[in-house]
Design a protein that fits this description.
heterodimer; A: Four Helix Bundle (Hemerythrin (Met), subunit A); globular; B: mainly alpha; Helix Hairpins
Chain lengths: ~170, ~100
């Protein structure tokens, strides 16, 4: 059952991501990426990590993608006009698309080889591991004790990013 | 129950899709979206390996990666807005003034 769910969520994520890079209208790309994030969130739940799943929805789909949508609608982002109109994009898109597709397949083959060299490891299912991994309390304890410095530094990082974004988007720089 | 290799293979596929999007698309916003796809692929690896070794460190790293991704998306989009104001286009081929 878990395997079926894995393939369902994986299929949703991969198909949505392929459509993101295949769409010409950036608004559709953003909405499809939200769909991809929903698939990933399901995969996190399968991995007994509900905190990561919920954070993915709240932060990524709920904040970052909304920011993208704001910018797409603010700029009235034009559709791009590449010649990807026919059913054979590799032959029509020109030389860069052909080379890019071939390089992309080579890259995927290399990564697949690297991944499958790892000896098959099952994900253990004893109850104690599941309790440790899925416990938000455990995440809080680790986050605020072992990684407290990184946590405070990310707050400075967000402040810097906020100031930078406001300054960069000003009308008269 | 899917094994770790399933998750690693899926992450490899997602990372490749993101990389292909960054190199092949001629729209700045779609390039930024492809970068987000790559970051999500890496997040999946972190959570999967964290689950495998039975530690919450995977999710903590994912927490930080998401924070950094949010900050980078904000600044990147501000840059896109500034660029759009200059040239009225989102095609990266229009911004070639640094080319020699």
């Amino acid at each position: 059952m878990d395997l079926v769910l894995f393939y369902v969520f994986a299929a949703v994520t991969v198909v949505a991501s392929l459509l993101v890079i295949g769409q010409r209208n950036p608004m559709y790309s953003v909405l499809l990426l939200i769909g991809s994030f929903l698939g990933l969130s399901g995969l996190y739940v399968l991995l007994d990590s509900p905190f990561a799943a919920v954070t993915q929805i709240i932060v990524y789909a709920g904040a970052i993608m909304v920011l993208f949508l704001f910018v797409v609608m603010l700029l009235n982002a034009p559709r791009e006009d590449p010649p990807l109109r026919t059913t054979l994009p590799v032959s029509i898109g020109g030389r860069p698309l052909r080379v890019g597709a071939i390089l992309g397949l080579l890259f995927l083959a290399e990564m697949a080889w690297a991944v499958w060299r790892v000896p098959a490891r099952a994900i253990g299912g004893d109850a104690q591991t599941v309790d440790t991994v899925s416990s938000v309390r455990q995440i809080g304890v680790e986050l605020f004790t072992t990684h407290a410095f990184a946590f405070e530094v990310t707050s400075v990082l967000i402040l810097v990013a906020m100031v930078g974004a406001v300054v960069l988007a000003k009308r008269n720089l | 129950m899917p094994s770790l290799n399933h998750f690693l293979a899926l992450s490899a596929v997602l990372f490749t899709i993101g990389t292909a999007g960054v190199f092949l698309r001629r729209n700045l916003i779609t390039i930024l979206l492809s970068i987000e796809i790559m970051l999500n692929a890496v997040n999946l690896v972190f959570v999967a390996v964290g689950r495998q070794i039975g530690s919450v460190e995977g999710q903590i790293i994912v927490f930080f990666v998401m924070t950094v991704a949010a900050a980078e998306a904000a600044v990147g989009l501000a840059i896109v807005i500034a660029l759009f104001r200059q040239r009225e286009t989102l095609n990266p081929d229009a911004f070639t003034s640094l080319k020699w």
